[in-house]
C-alpha cells in the first residue's frame, strides 16, 4: 500500500471537515489528530512546533461519524485499520461513553534502522531508548525488515500493542518476512499479570518458533527483564526498547536495572575507602554483566547516541563520568562522546 493511500485510509474515518484540513502536502506531515467533545480539534505536524487548532468545535455527530466507521475497540481503548500502522485510541467518561479520539498516523520508514545495520549484523543485543514519539518503534520495524530480508535471520516480533506490525491479523509489510506474535489483552481483574503475559509470548518465540532474533517493543515489567536475561543466556539476539529517554533512566529504574548490570549500593570498608581515596562510605556498582551489549539513544528522528559497550557506559555513569558513546552514524561520521 502506498504511503498516500495509507494516510487516506485513516482520513476516511475522520469527519470530512477535519480531514479537509490535512489534504495535499499537509497529509505528508500530519502525525496526530485530537478530537474532544465540545472543543476544537488539534492537529500535530512533525514540521510544526505547535499544534494547529481548528475553529469549529467537535460535536456528538462527529463522534458518531467515527464510530460508524470504527466499530470495535479493545479493552485498552485502542484499535487500528487492517494492513496499516495507524492507531486510534478513544477517551471515555465515567459512564464509559466515548467523548474523544486520538488518531496517530503510522508511517513505515524503511531506512530508519539503516545506520544501525553494523550493530544488527554482529548479533549483539541492542537496547533502544528515547522519549515518547522519538521513533523507537519505527527503528524496531525497520530493524525487523533488515534482519529478516537482508540478513536472512529467523526473526519473531513480540508486538505489545500492535504498533510494530499494525493492527489486524495480517502484519504490515514494513516488517519484512519477520513473524509477529501479538500479546494477549491483560485481564483487568488481574492487572499484575500484564508483564507475565508479555514474558510468556517472548518465551513462545524461543521455544515454539525457534527465533534467532527476538524484537520487543517496550520492556516495562520486571517479568520482561527476567525473560530477557534468559534469552541472553540462550544466545538469542534481542532487540528491544525500554521505558526511558536515556541509558541513565534505565539504570535507575528498579524494575529494569537488571538489564544493564543490576547496579546495587555497596558499603565500603574503611580499608577500601582509603584505597580508593574516597570520602563516601557507599557507592553504586554493577553486580553482573548487562543483558544488552550496546544501547542506542534516539535524540530525535535520525539522530542517535550509540553506546557500543553498555557495561563501560554504565560504569562511567555510576561514577558520574561521561559515558563512552558515539553520536551520529555508527559507520561513518561518528564522534566519540
Automatic annotation (TrEMBL):
Domain of life of the organism encoding this protein: Bacteria
Gene3D superfamilies: P-loop containing nucleotide triphosphate hydrolases
Annotated AAA+ ATPase domain residues: 122-262
SMART domains noted in UniProt: AAA
Name of the protein: AAA+ ATPase domain-containing protein
Record organism: Candidatus Segetimicrobium genomatis
Lineage: Bacteria, Bacillati, Candidatus Sysuimicrobiota, Candidatus Sysuimicrobiia, Candidatus Sysuimicrobiales
